[in-house]
Automatic annotation (TrEMBL):
The lineage of its organism: Eukaryota, Fungi, Dikarya, Ascomycota, Pezizomycotina. It comes from Aspergillus tanneri. Residues 142-296 form the Arrestin C-terminal-like domain. This is Arrestin C-terminal-like domain-containing protein. Belongs to the arrestin family. It comes from the Eukaryota. One of its GO terms (molecular function) is ubiquitin protein ligase binding. One of its GO terms (biological process) is ubiquitin-dependent endocytosis. One of its GO terms (cellular component) is cytosol.
Length: 378
């Protein structure tokens, strides 16, 4: 907590810091039950977490004097083991946290300032030394016309990152041509919030439910931007790789959530268009369930989201030791008194001190051949 410069001493009762989290609830002033999908169009908030801490106060007197000056107060508010993380996204603030700084005075109105903060749970995979990806693959044959495979490198996707989607197709029907490919990331919300006792008694409703769906990424790629293997007379294969860029704004995308009251899931959907020989259009459609999680690798201080290439990140994280030809080894010392000492990993060269005791002891050590011949003679 930071208090800007005070020009003159102030008589204060106490300084407090308070952290509160909110969950929106339907407005009980309505005379009819809420319909599916409009739960949060008109809402109020209920407190799900509240904790305060006194930063300064007098133990004996009802107030104390704060001299003129500039002040900073460090504070720490621990969270319980089980808590609801920040949940915000398209057209909603399902769960949010606010920190209040309160300057309490005896005979005047209190000074209150507030600042929103974001709190997220850590993802278990990120805590492991080795990230073992969970790739997803759809392999099928469509109406004996084309055999296809669609794959992604991992179903666990950090918020705001990019990842590739790879398509492989082998046409089995004559005259079949590849058309446009569409990729979407869909976000589905399902909420179930208990109604207040008064509202339940008045309207006979125990729970409010809401179901919403948003498309947070959509891209259509026209035909022609693909690699064709083979020839028209022999077997033909089509290979296409496209990149999905998740939104980097907290108002444009929500992380995946699975809790008692709030469930948010994500699906990667694709549509492959095929042009038949007779000119008609056919479509292959499918979906992948994916998990979008909050990561400190993409979210830094001040809620700045950085782009992360998922495939490159996994390669760097799981990289083994360097190849044999790429490592730098120590060079052996020779019998030349002007020998230099080479340090592995850098070009630093340090001349040896030939007058030192260590150098004379080193020179007195017999060579391998001398030691072996002496052993045989014994």
């Amino acid at each position: 907590m930071h208090i800007h410069f005070i020009r003159m001493p102030r008589r204060l009762k106490a300084l407090h810091i308070r952290q509160v989290s909110y969950l929106p609830l339907p407005n009980n002033s309505s005379q009819s039950p809420y319909n599916e999908g409009i739960l949060f169009k008109s809402s109020r908030e209920t407190t799900t977490f509240s904790q305060s801490q006194t930063l300064a106060a007098s133990k004996k007197l009802s107030s104390f004097t704060l001299p003129a000056g500039n002040y900073e107060f460090a504070f720490e508010i621990p969270l319980k083991g089980k808590f609801i993380e920040t949940i915000t996204g398209p057209n909603h603030d399902y769960h949010s946290y606010q920190v209040y700084g309160v300057i309490e005075r005896n005979w005047s109105k209190d000074f209150i300032v507030s600042q929103p903060i974001r709190i997220y749970k850590s993802f278990e995979l990120e805590q492991d030394d080795i990230w073992l990806p969970t790739p997803a693959l759809i392999e099928n044959q469509w109406h004996e016309k084309v055999q296809y495979t669609v794959s992604i490198p991992d179903v666990n996707i950090p918020f705001g990152s990019t990842f590739p989607v790879e398509f492989w197709m082998a046409p089995m029907a004559k005259g079949l041509k590849l058309g446009a490919i569409t990729i979407e990331v869909r976000e589905k919300h399902n909420l179930k919030i208990a109604a207040s006792a008064a509202y339940s008694a008045h309207c006979g409703v125990n729970f409010f439910t809401s179901a919403e769906e948003y498309t947070i990424f959509s891209e259509r790629y026209d035909a022609g931007n693909y690699v064709m293997l083979g020839s028209e007379l022999l077997n033909v294969e089509w290979r296409v790789e496209k990149t999905v860029c998740l939104p980097r704004g907290f108002e444009a995308c929500t992380q995946s959530v699975d809790s008692k009251n709030i469930n948010i899931c994500h699906m990667l959907a694709f549509t492959i268009e095929l042009h038949n020989e007779n000119g008609s259009l056919s479509k292959i459609q499918g979906t992948f369930p994916i998990n979008i999680f909050m990561s400190p690798r993409t979210i830094s201080k001040n809620a700045v989201v950085h782009i992360l290439d998922l495939q490159q990140f996994q390669a760097d994280r799981n990289a083994g030791p360097p190849l044999y030809g790429n490592h730098i080894a120590d060079l052996l010392l020779s019998e030349n008194p002007h020998t230099y000492e080479y340090h592995a990993g850098g070009p630093t060269i340090t001349p040896l001190d030939t007058s030192s005791v260590e150098y004379r002891e080193l020179c007195s050590v017999p060579s391998y051949e001398t030691a072996m011949n002496t052993t045989r003679a014994i």
